[in-house]
Amino acid sequence: MYTASFAFFEELWSAGVDHVFVNLGSDHPSIIEAMVKGSRDRNGAFPRIITCPNEMVAMSMADGYARLTGKPQAVIVHVDVGTQGLGAAVHNSSTGRAPVLVFAGLSPSTQEGELRGSRTEFIHWVQDVPDQKQIVAQYCRYAAEIKTGVNVKQMVRRALQFASSAPQGPVYLCATREVMEAEMEPYELKKGCWEPVELGGLEEDAVGRIAEALAGAKHPLVVTGYAGRNHAVPGALVELANTVKGLRVLDTGGSDMCFPADHPGWLGLRFGVDDAVRTADAILVLDCDVPWIPTQCRPREDAKIFHIDVDPLKQLMPLHYIEAQHRYRADALASIRQITARLRGSSELQAKLGGAEREQQWDALKAEHKKRLDDIAARSQPLENGEFGTGHLCSRLRELCPKDTIWAVEAVTNTLFVHDGLQPTMPGQWINCGGGGLGWSGGGALGVKLAADHEARKKGQKKGQFVVQIVGDGSFLFSVPGSVYWIARRYGIPVLTIVLNNKGWNAPRRSLLLVHPDGLGSKASNEEINISFDPSPDYAGIAKAAAGGELFAARVDKAADLDRVLREAIAAVENGQAAVVDCKVAYYLFTSIKMDPGDIPQEVPASEDFRGERENILRGHKAAISNPRTPPSSKVSKEAKEHSRRELEAYDEPYDASQASHGGKEEGEKDPGNVARGLKASISNPGVSEEAKQKAREKLGKLGGE
Ligand SMILES: Cc1ncc(C[n+]2csc(CCOP(=O)(O)OP(=O)(O)O)c2C)c(N)n1
Ligand SMILES: [Mg+2]
Q: Region Disordered: start and end of each range (predicted)?
């Protein structure tokens, strides 16, 4: 029997959809029939079906797959409830520009048995909602109901055309059981007529305008976000930066590898706050949502700003504007190549780009780059007490994992340290969700690995690149690990997961302090502001249970054990098993320090909780003023230092930075006299909680105090 459902799958396959991630229900009898028929009769010419016990994981897998390959895959979910189960994955696919086709059944539209597929179960009444597609339509490039089987293939192609045209994103199709059950004559669409819309480059005038501005600038800057999704863009940007010596590239989206860390123009990843933005006199914003955050950082008044984007209006965002003098809807790669060609081809511009001053600028850039890397290396040392931070962890991962590893990153407040530590240099090597819905990276990393293996096998290789997921502990729990590691084992998708265990959600504290730097919460404990995960779940254990025991699970809290455990985990993954390593990382101190979010915050040993205790707050402020582990160029801003000084004074604890311990000691930590004084003050302070006082008494007891 040839049904609309079978035609649907036939067209998915013909359009290059190799995988369908399914979570099935009562809307899918004809879908199940078609899957069995296709898998039996068309083996090798029918999509591979992956059972996904959770819809968000299903869509995140399709998202991860598309992020690596640019090819949309399909997700099948159950009516309205399955559509809602997609959850934040729909937002992520939309914001992160990942093409995905979602299909959901609708409750049957007949109840007397008029057509095959008519209502047969109680649930068909309960799940009949007024407009199912509206649940996700505002995120979708296209959302429609398939109303008849006779043009189901055209509907599939139209949806895929939207998904794959820039800006890429999710599309949603739904249909009643009766429509999908309909028997019909097989048919085929004309080949080669359904390609995505092509986007061109810039008009000649625009090319000239931008080339002149870059050539004439003293501090030219490119700010980018998604441009590296096209893996040819990083190379094109390198060509541009080699042509305009002194040009630097700042990544503000962190969703793709846009510019290699080993080029002198590399500024790394910063979320909208960086001095380069404040000082640049010509800025090219390239495929980017948030080049800077005006309340924290903005360009000079006289900066010449150009915005090139596939979606310069940001059509789905009610509030968005960049104060650029010119904006263009154009393809990033084509535009960059045009600008570079113009700069190289014009003798007038060449004259501006040559000369001794430019050479000096180039040398200065190289020196600055070296210093940046040295600073990162200095920050990546283990802590004095043998614990380690995310920077150290990632520098070890970079060393120990294969050079072409793909990093699937969802590290939230640790993201900058992960990026600094990994220093990606290969196109496609760094993939971050790009959206704001936590939980992407579980399914996302599986999708990336599935795609890497599939593409490699097509080329006759045994397996694809090594894939590492680096995820915050909070985000790990959002990712539905019970489903993720079951799928990893069931389908043999080995990924190394690194959990950044900083005992909960750090981000909400930072968000709080950006608005209420001196508010009640600034001095409240993590428990009190409800962001602590204490006691810590056994993250690796959760994954191991989901994988039926067939998973490498470990926990590390000392730098001395790190290399050994990582090596074992990497070996397990190389041998085909998933691995989860729960890493107890130092957390980054966000006390009431009014910190510029572009600055590097202080690391605090993981064994030290921020509990709102006086001694902890004081230590935080002292560390902010003078921390020997922080390289001198790190920018804990003057304002923040001044603020910390005032806070210390308010606590009757004036601080003389010249007394700061040097040689790697944490201020206050190694001087027993200092510690004891702080503890005693806590015990006698009426503002300190009984729990904190008890802790202080215990610590004092250990120090031999009364
Ligand atoms: C689905 C979803 N729910 C809630 C949030 C709000 N949120 C943003 S960051 C964050 C904490 C993330 O915790 P973790 O992954 O441990 O990273 P950390 O803050 O510790 O760096 C939360 C809850 C979100 N972005 N997405
Ligand atoms: Mg966390």
A: 620-706
